[in-house]
Amino acid sequence: MSAGPVGTAPVSAPALERPVTGPRGRTAVRVGPVSVVLRWRHLLVPLVALVVLVLVSAVSIGRGDYPIGIPDVLRTVVGLGDGPQEFIVLRLRAPRVVVGLLVGLALGVAGAVFQTFARNPLAAPDTLGITMGASVGAVAAIVLSGGTSAGALLGGLGIPLAALLGALVTGLLLFLLAWRAGVDGYRLVLVGIALWSMGAALVDWMLTNAEIYDAASAYVWITGSLNARTWDQAVPLAVALAVLLPLALATGRALSVMQFGDDTARGLGLRLAGAQAAVVLLAVGLTAAAVAAAGPITFVALVVPQIAVRLAGGSRPPLLASGLLGAVLVVTADLVTRTVLPTALPVGILTAVIGAPYLLWLLVRGRRQLT
Amino acid sequence: MTTTADAPVRGGAAPSGTPAARRTARGRRLAVLLVLLLLVVAAGLASIAVGTRSIGLGDVWRGLLDSDLTTEESVIVRQLRVPRTVLGLMVGAALGVAGALMQGHTRNPLGDPGLLGVTAGASLAVVVAIWAFGITSPGGYVWFAFAGALAGTVLVYAVGSAGRGGPTPVTLALAGAALSALLYALVRAILVSDQQSLDAFRFWQVGALAGRDADVAWQVAPFVVLGLLLAVVNAPALNLLGLGEDVARGLGQRIWLARAVGLAAITLLCGAATAACGPIAFVGLVVPHVVRALTGPDHRWLIPGSALAGAVLLLTADVIGRVVARPGELQVGIVLALVGGPFFLALVRRRRSMAL
Lengths: 371, 356
What we know:
Chain A contains 15 helices and three strands. By secondary structure, chain A is mainly α. The radius of gyration of chain A is 21 Å and the shape is globular.
């Protein structure tokens, strides 16, 4: 938020000749010409998140009308299960968990990228209008499919494709309208506000004009749900993420340089316009893929990066940790809604119910101000 | 203080800080406010004259002046159009000012006044009013919405200031985002499982001036007036806070007092507006950015400017909404975003945006 070009420099350990322990939890390691600052919490948080993710996913796959123990689930996933269990685990239950996991991963990373890029803890696909664009597409497909010819066309596409289209169009508009020989983070935010407002108005307009049955099913979609997801949704999402996620994680270096402001980044040898375009478009792509699969699951992209930066330390939301924590949150929320609650609420409700108190707790006991 | 506030103003011919430059800047800002005031009057007259039944300006004038007149036109003017116009004026001004205060206090361009828990709290209260008490008229929601808005803000402020650092803008914004998400989750949980509530709630959620009678305007008026007064009082302190809390403290500003006054004003203004019309995000988000580009970041000018511009914007959108979908009308919240959005985009692209 502080737009000062020189914020808190993340690296303060001097390049010394032997390993030294830095101020707190940092160790500088030098091997030949390469020197790295090791921050233990940066390594520990993703690792712990990964372990928790595997466990929660296994529990989630195991729970249901026919309970399966965690060891059996893990054995089946690596290909050592027996017939009926294999069918239940791989055919029936795994797709839903896989979609949830991948969506959380994509939204967490996309949120962290946007927040770092705009230097604003409130910047996220949700506040910048991208998920709202997806909602416009999906709600139009649900509500208008009976009526006008354009609506019938959208309805023929199917809801996921309409959502994907909406998110991509909005994301591209965001990028193009914010582009003027480079993307300024501040202009991106302002353009995002306008796109979000217009999308919200369109959604509200369609909801008020729709039949109440259509409005109700549209409302469930807007909340974000994992109901009835199969490999048909999981496989395209996995393919998209296999391409986009490594590229997005690779922008981490460019992002940490951009943090110092445009002039400094240029001075450090970053090709600024290209890097900005890559960062924004990758985050848009991740969001669009996630939203097409499960709807705009609220809260993940906006708040998980803030949780991640408070856990892992550092001066900006860590990309990988944000993604893994996002996956943990979505899978956990889905597990809770399927097992604990009497009626199965859409997962988008539970992500906020589980995630918000945790962020609030971190805020209350937090020591220093982070942006 | 004046010099620091004047320094970033663009377009001043002379170097800023000199008396001549200060005079030019002040003249420019006065001109901006004057033009906005004229626009408010024009939009107000249009709002009284235009509708399902168009009324000539002559009839408007007679209907306003002569309260004994009982022609159909004068009754429409006095009983329907004037209350609606007054409500639109108040809500527009309230939202514009609340947005300016919110962006000033959080120093965040995404600082929607509803972020402090106002909108989420009001939404939850209205949903409960519909779901549990079976209330379905906009007039019936007002006190529920207002109580919900107050409760939401108090909750956000309590959590945001519970940390060791106290209520910093970042913790407040994040606490607001987290608590809003939590409250909306409850709203959604009810709406997803009860179709009847959704049926009533979707019309409140859009944000509209239609169907609010004069009572609603009178109910929220005291809160809007009080909020506007607090906002004006808060303006100089907000300028100091813009220099950073440490500098402001060094210059003798009591930080907590300034924050408390500002937050109280935001809550009153945004809460009253939301109670009367439902959640309208666009005005609070966009108006301060537009006005800041005209008057500069000095809050003593930005706040009155935002009040006037907010009123113009809301009334104009309401009039457009009555014209485009005859014989029905399009709700003001929808028109605002769909017509105002492209305009704002053009503005953002054309100018070098004025950072907070």
